[in-house]
Write a structure and sequence with these properties.
By secondary structure, the protein is of the alpha+beta class. It is built from 14 helices and 23 strands. Helix 3 crosses helix 4. It has a six-stranded mixed sheet with strand order 14-13-8-9-10-15. Strands 1-2-6-7 form a four-stranded mixed sheet, sandwiched between helices. Strands 17-16-19-20 form a four-stranded antiparallel sheet, with no helix packed on it. It is globular, with a radius of gyration of 25 Å. Strand 11 and strand 12 form a beta hairpin. It folds into four domains: 182 residues, 2-Layer Sandwich (Nucleotidyltransferase, domain 5); 123 residues, Nucleotidyltransferase, domain 5 (2-Layer Sandwich), CATH 3.30.420.40; 81 residues, Actin, Chain A, domain 4, CATH 3.90.640; 100 residues, Sandwich (Substrate Binding Domain Of DNAk, Chain A, domain 1).
């Protein structure tokens, strides 16, 4: 049960483009934010800032979300740092540094991590890096993807493409494992299930990896690959951190039971909770190799130490519900693809938490005769696949070095929409789907609507994503307004609404009154809490200033390359 993967950078040889795979490394993230806080505050370069004051594991779960979201409220109870409601209900992270309070929005934290990843790529390539392919969980919604674009803009990166993490992992796997052309039954392609369980999210994707035009003599031997996503499933709130949370809750309940102390008093000590969480995470990793270990924390509360045994079977029992969700996600993915599990050729494990023995045994039992594939590094596969995608997008095929370059040059990725997209109609919160889930992207679709009232001159279209027939159970993306509608009895005006879903998984909406020609293509009102353009520009200026300051003091900083992220 290895530690959850750090945020990872990869770069293609001979390219000025990099990929970034955002992971859940608390150490890397803490160091990045701590360093940024010190230098933005005007600090020098000598010495380490104790990470105890700025320690932000799982901050990715805040990006693109509202502070009032139920999931955010549940998470902040367990996090060892403070989160408050900022403007527009935006989660804002509060840290203390040298007696000063500093605040960061999630996009700023992600921008710091992306900057560190870029530095790693620059150090390797010895060339500037300005473009990037960024991977995200497959179930990242529209707001989260837009927030990721904002984070990249703050970091000064041009996003060539946002791709789903399991799709990137499939590229890394398929590039090496696809059989050569005309190799019998496999020439029609292989069906691969990617099971990606990381530090904070679960992604399951079912893909067909084939050579396009297998039945065409003109294309059958050109070395090309097509990765066609058939279905996706997952949970943006299921990963290694959730297994840790279950252990933390159990330990605190045990401590309260044995020592008869108030629950609020234990939970209020953030430093103690942080130490307990670290001990639980260590125990989780050890339980991959031993049947039992111990969890020990000195002075957990009021000078009282905590010590308890934790067996592998107890760990599995504490997380029984979460493990069950993993299997349900696999079943859902196969169901959506209308495919039996016997049709799956390979099951590929990705993400640090996929090393958990219980996860592997459940998947083995589910697929029975299928062998679980460990041929790709679970921590690096996503970044490797994204780097290949960056090379393709950049057209880096001039390097005449072996067959791999030929494969990269003609690789095709056909991804899909993870959630249905639509508008609210009628008076009963009905969800009218414009783009169904599992539609190949990029895609565009138009549906015609009309007015609800007589002489209506202005029409509001609330835009949602989700699978419920009622918008009350779906996620509101924003509200689209069309003015200048010709007054007429209800039901007479004809209004065409077009959804354009781009390759980054971001939605653009257009509306037109077919009677008057009145149009609106200003996309969606800022209900999702996306940063305003001036905010992005301000944060980008601050980041550039920080980078210049960091370069001036680089010679006095101690370099530590223990992670793939360069920690300075």
């Amino acid at each position: 049960m290895a530690e959850d993967a750090p945020s990872t950078a990869a770069a293609a040889e001979g390219s000025q483009h990099a990929s970034a795979a955002e992971g859940g490394s608390a150490a890397a993230l803490a160091a990045s934010v701590a360093k940024a806080a010190r230098e933005r505050d005007g600090g020098g370069g000598g010495g380490e800032l104790p990470c105890a004051s700025i320690h932000l594991p799982q901050a990715k779960r805040l990006i693109g979300r509202r502070f009032s979201d139920k999931s955010v409220q549940e998470d902040i109870k367990l996090w060892p740092f403070k989160v408050i409601a900022g403007p527009d209900d935006r989660p804002t992270i509060v840290v203390q540094h040298e007696g000063k309070e500093m605040q960061f929005v999630p996009e700023e934290v992600s921008a710091m991590v992306l900057s560190k990843l870029r530095d790693a790529a620059v150090a390797y390539l010895s060339e500037p890096v300005t473009d990037a392919v960024i991977t995200v969980p497959v179930y990242f919604n529209n707001a989260q993807r837009e927030a990721t674009l904002d984070a990249a803009a703050i970091a000064g990166l041009n996003v060539m493409r946002i791709i789903n993490e399991p799709s990137a992992a499939a590229i890394a796997y398929g590039l090496d494992k696809m059989p050569p052309p005309a190799s019998g039954a496999d020439a029609a392609g292989r069906t691969v299930l990617i099971f990606d369980l990381g530090g904070g999210t679960l992604d399951v994707s079912l893909l067909n990896i084939a050579r396009p035009g297998n039945n065409s003599s003109s294309n059958s031997d050109n070395g090309s690959f097509e990765f066609e996503v058939k279905a996706v499933a997952g949970d943006t709130h299921l990963g290694g951190a959730d297994f840790d949370n279950a252990m933390v809750k159990h330990c605190i309940n045990e401590f309260i039971r044995k020592n008869d102390v108030a629950e609020d008093g234990v939970w209020s000590n953030q430093k103690a909770i942080r130490r307990l969480r670290s001990a639980c995470e260590r125990a989780k990793r050890l339980l991959s190799f031993t049947a039992q270990t111990s969890i020990e924390v000195d002075s957990l509360h009021d000078g009282v130490d905590f010590c308890a045994k934790m067996s592998r079977s107890r760990f599995e029992e504490l997380n029984k519900e979460l493990f069950g969700k993993c299997v349900k996600a696999v079943e859902k993915c196969l169901e959506d693809a209308k495919m039996d599990k016997s049709a799956v050729h390979d099951v590929v494990l990705v993400g640090g938490s996929s090393r958990i023995p219980k996860v592997q045994s459940m998947l083995h039992d589910f697929f029975q005769e299928k062998k679980l594939r460990h041929s790709v590094n679970p921590d690096e596969a996503v970044a490797y696949g994204a780097a290949i995608q960056a090379s393709i997008l950049n057209g880096d095929s001039d390097n005449a070095d072996a067959d791999a370059d030929d494969k990269k040059r003609v690789m095709i990725l056909r991804d899909i929409t993870p959630l249905s997209l639509g508008v609210e109609i009628n008076f009963d919160h009905t969800m009218s789907v414009v783009i169904p889930r599992n539609t190949f992207i990029p895609t565009k679709n138009t549906r015609r609507y009309t007015t609800l009232y007589d002489n209506q001159i202005r029409v509001s279209f609330p835009v949602f994503e989700g699978e419920s027939a009622s918008t009350l159970d779906n996620n509101l993306l924003g509200k689209f307004v069309l003015s200048g509608v010709l007054p007429a009895p209800r039901g007479v005006p004809q209004i065409d609404v077009t959804f354009d879903f781009d390759t980054n998984g971001v939605l653009h909406v257009f509306a037109e009154d077919m009677g008057t020609g009145s149009k609106n293509n200003n996309t969606i009102t800022n209900h999702s809490g996306r940063l305003k353009k001036e905010d992005v520009e301000r944060m980008s200026r601050e980041a550039r200033s920080y980078n210049r300051k960091r370069k001036r003091t680089r010679s006095s900083l101690q370099m530590n390359s223990g992670n793939l992220v360069i920690l300075e």
